[in-house]
Amino acid sequence: MGEDVGGRLRRLRAERGLTQRELAEPHYTAAYVSSVETGARTPSGDALRHFAARLRVDTGELLGVTSPRDDVRLDLDIAAVALDLLAGNDSAPKMRRLARRAERIGRNRQAGLAWLWLARQTAGDTRPRLVAAAEAVLSDDIPAYRELAVALRASVLIGWGEPHHAMHLLRTALDASIARHPHPVLLLTLHAFLAEGHLHLGETTHAAHHAGEALRLARGGVLAELIENQRRLTEAYLAEGRVGDAVAAVAVLHDLLHERALRPVLARCLFARALARRADDLEGALADLRASRAAVPDHAVTLELADVCRELGRLDDTAALLAEAAEAIPADSPYSASLTFQQGSLALARGDLDAAEAGFAHAIDVAALRDARAVLAASVDKAGELLHDQGRSEEAADLLRRGLLLLGAEEDLPK
Fold this sequence. Notes:
By secondary structure, the protein is mainly α. Helices cover about 75% and strands about 0% of the residues. Helix 18 (about 280-295) runs antiparallel to helix 19.
């Protein structure tokens, strides 16, 4: 016991900035404190009570019995590793050790949150196992924590090709949260994942609705500052012995961190809202797409942004975006068809009819190869319109026939 007490005594004393003499007086000496801290002596009950009073903790904490202070310290450790993960550092082994440590001492909530952090940062076959681990330890917790795992479970289901099941889980959790436990971060999370799910299903209107709700609840660019301030506040409360305040403060810290982890999903929410805005608010769509692209680079967002710039007549911006996309998008990517179509559209907007014709012809070939039916139809339409405007009606008719065949029409089309 002496070594455990000594190490804990040394840490708590250092946290409060006390010297060994200041901790010892008036009843003990600095030498006695030193001997306890090194494990050379086991403190008496009176000494434990004296040290606990000077450190503003209970004696159970000094004896190694888990206390509220220990819980806050564990939460702070998880928060520190979560920040490392968000910064792109390889801290998964640290988080895994914290999850297992929390399980060993019966702190299921902290274990669940640690497993969730690991699941967020993991892809492939390991992710479902991590989500399941989080679900297991959070199963008896309050909805605000338990249903954070629902969002990641939905993401796993979408990856397995079960988007409708995923959407059912999310909608059920959202309805329950609104009715009984409207925790702000949980509502934000569920709306954001519902927006992403509807976007995956091509349901733009529903995606835009949930995206708007998520973005309304999000705190945006101030999160980094809020997180740091909340971390420092928690540490200050601990140092002052205000453990109850520290418990409340660290809970807010974790809410802020979970919101920060939603950054990629919120970028998709901006994309979803931009798609809905294009019909009557091009400038608003432009702002959303730029914000989405700044948050998380994405080929679909870049191409959509280029298209909106073209519609607004900002052709130099369009050209720069398409040049960047051409460097980044591989030839075998599903986005290659959209890229070639937009290159043809840019040439047409600049009045370069030969380049536009060649661009649309290339887009037809690429779209047919990639089975990008929407791009194929748009390319045939634009190319046919271009030929017709030039008085090349027979070529336009042949092109239309070819396009219909590529789209799966019957081969005995009338000529």
